[in-house]
Amino acid sequence: MLNLKKVLTTRILYFHFILRLTLSILLCGLLLLFIIPLFYFLVFGSGEAGLKIYQLPISNFLENWFPLIFSMLLVLFGFVKNIRTDQFSKAKSYLITGLILLTVYPFRKLIVDFFISLFQ
Question: At a CB cut-off of 8 Å and minimum separation 6, what does 20 contact?
Fold first, then answer.
């Protein structure tokens, strides 16, 4: 509890925060748009069997929530690592990045549709 109080009262390193936020959003977006669909296509193919596997509830869960879970695990790992080494300003960057990811992720489809409509 004392460490969390230190994290919240420490000043943030803006360059570290912007870098972590950008990389986390890019990783989440790449997983959502390219890596997971490519993985499904390469593993299951594009035939009837691949379509049946793709329609399973676990596939829906993995497609929608795996990018957030993976990104949040990386952010949590960075947060804990920096807490243990007493780098509280970097830990605060990870904490704020995680909170921003959690608040923005439910609007991912609206954000993706917005950026797609910009380039049409």
Answer: 75, 78, 93, 94, 97
Domain count, the chain: 1
Residue-range definition of the domain harbouring residue 76: 13-118
**pTM (2 d.p.):** 0.85
- Report d(CA 53, CA 24) in Å as an integer: 29
Cα distance between residue 100 and residue 103, in whole Å: 5
pLDDT tens-digit readout, 54-81: 788 888 888 889 999 999 999 999 999 9
Q: Say if 64 falls within a structural domain.
A: yes
Q: Is residue 5 domain-resident? A: no
Q: How long is the chain?
A: 120
